[in-house]
Design goal:
single chain; 454 residues; alpha/beta; Rossmann fold; 4-stranded parallel beta sheet; 17 helices; binds pyridoxal-5'-phosphate
């Protein structure tokens, strides 16, 4: 019998998260205060985040210990399985060996609880009563609701309007775990009202929802804010995924030539790729790591590397990153988790230094890839995850043409069980090929007044 699934025991779960900045020659540039344009110190983040997470945000330690209580909760679904995709290989008739790490086995159905659990844990340790957040596709809101419920913290979620309307069951999941969910933009915040004044029918965006959630947290001392991607500590927590995958690839007697993950803000990409990049940075390996983003929101492939705000209204520090401009409102594509104008600072620096690659895919190509995968392997991917599958298919076909046997690993970062509306739209031919125009990007970037990077 073929071995399809590589499984680790609970005891083999990693005991540390991996901080890639310790291995990088060019460290990421510091965040700047938007008023003074001086590097901000950790204390500037104190109104929004608990101290322990701020420490992790700036740490130079290579290995950060995972608290026992967090590992204990991780064990509800971790270690996650790694599969060899024999059926996909057969359908593609490729000499490439394809593996995937499956994060959809978590209670929320994606990789997001890997950071939601430790974030809620550190907030609880520091006596926080309520956490606000944003959610796009609903995956992050679900994950944080689940984590807050465990620790007895109230959770308030600003859900991007298009998703709120199209994904009622995601909202109900959050409600089941005890969270309050608002359709963003709301009229409860100044940020939301300012957007509604300009466009009463705004479909919302992650940038807007972030502004709303931050405003709420900043105005109440018992309330903190949590972000599901982009920030260093979030990427750090996700590295448990890739560390497990390194061990599982060893079990399979293989090593990837190519690692692929979908890219929204960079957390699942970082999660799977950083432990493999460590082998490049420290052991001279040459594993290609490719981030797959939507053609409708292509910050890595068509954005600029400069300082920009992480949110739409301009409440965050300025972050040195690839961005389409904080005013950019992506088309309401179904991959809600990828509708973000910017990218994590660490991932941006890695791309700038050409240590990783990026590629974009149109939504039709992604759904084709997702359906092909579901038919072959059984698991129905989240629309976000189908971006990685689109890249994998291109690489598998390239291997067929060149006759080279490549080993490809990707992160199947979530299932699509709550995204079936998007599949219905795809089957009904309601989805159109969509790519943002050069004018739209130029227009959004022309509004940036934030400092350029030499
Ligand atoms: C949130 C999410 C993403 C995008 O965010 P990253 O931080 O880039 O991982 C991608 N896929 C799924 C399933 C998500 O929930």
């Amino acid at each position: 019998m073929k071995t399809r699934k590589f499984v680790l025991s609970e005891k083999e779960m990693p005991e540390h998260w991996y901080n890639i900045t310790a291995s990088m020659t060019n460290k990421p540039l510091p965040p700047l205060h938007p008023g003074t344009l001086q590097p901000i110190g950790p204390e500037a983040l104190a109104p929004l985040f608990p101290m322990e997470l701020i420490k992790q945000e700036v740490t130079s330690e290579k290995w950060v210990e995972i608290p026992d209580e967090v590992r204990d909760l991780y064990a509800i679904w971790r270690p996650t399985p790694l599969y060899r995709a024999y059926e996909l290989e057969k359908v593609l008739d490729t000499p490439a060996k394809i593996y995937y790490k499956y994060e959809g086995v978590s209670p929320a159905g994606s990789h997001k609880p890997n950071t939601a659990i430790p974030q809620a844990y550190y907030n609880k340790q520091e006596g926080v009563k309520r956490i606000t957040t944003e959610t796009g596709a609903g995956q992050w809101g679900s994950a944080l609701s689940f984590a807050c419920q465990h620790f007895g913290i109230e959770c308030e979620v600003y859900m991007v309007k298009v998703s709120y309307d199209s994904k009622p069951y995601r909202k109900l999941m959050m409600n089941t775990w005890g969270a309050k969910v608002h359709s963003s933009p709301t009229n409860h915040t100044q940020a939301g009202r300012s957007i509604l004044d300009m466009d009463p029918n705004s479909p919302g965006s992650l940038g807007i929802a972030i502004s709303e959630a931050i405003e709420r947290a900043a105005s109440d001392e018992h309330t903190k804010y949590a972000l599901g991607s982009v920030l260093n500590h979030v990427l750090l927590h996700q590295t448990i995924v890739g560390q497990e995958a390194v061990k599982q690839m060893e079990m399979a007697g293989d090593m990837p030539d190519i690692v692929v993950a979908p890219f929204g803000g960079g957390s699942n990409f970082a999660g799977i790729s950083f432990p493999f990049l460590r082998l490049n940075l420290e052991e001279g390996k040459h594993i290609r790591c490719i981030a797959a983003e939507p053609a409708s929101c292509p910050k890595l492939t068509r954005g600029v590397f400069r300082y920009d705000f992480g949110d739409t209204v301009g409440m965050t520090p300025l972050l040195p990153m690839y961005t389409l401009g904080h005013n950019f409102v992506p088309a309401p594509i179904h991959a809600g988790g990828l509708r973000y104008h910017g990218a994590g600072v660490i991932v941006s620096q890695l791309l700038k230094d050409k240590l990783i690659e990026a590629r974009s895919h149109d939504q039709l190509e992604c759904f084709q890839a997702g359906v092909l995968f579901a038919k072959a392997e059984g698991i129905i991917p989240a629309p976000e995850a189908s971006h990685a599958i689109a890249t994998v298919i291109q690489e598998a076909i390239a291997a067929k043409i060149s006759g080279e046997s490549k080993t490809i690993l990707f992160n199947l970062c979530g299932h699509g069980h709550f995204d079936m509306q998007s599949y219905e739209d795809y089957f009904a031919n309601k989805l159109v090929k969509h790519e943002v125009t050069a004018e739209d990007i130029a227009d959004s970037l022309s509004k940036l007044t934030t400092p350029e990077i030499a």
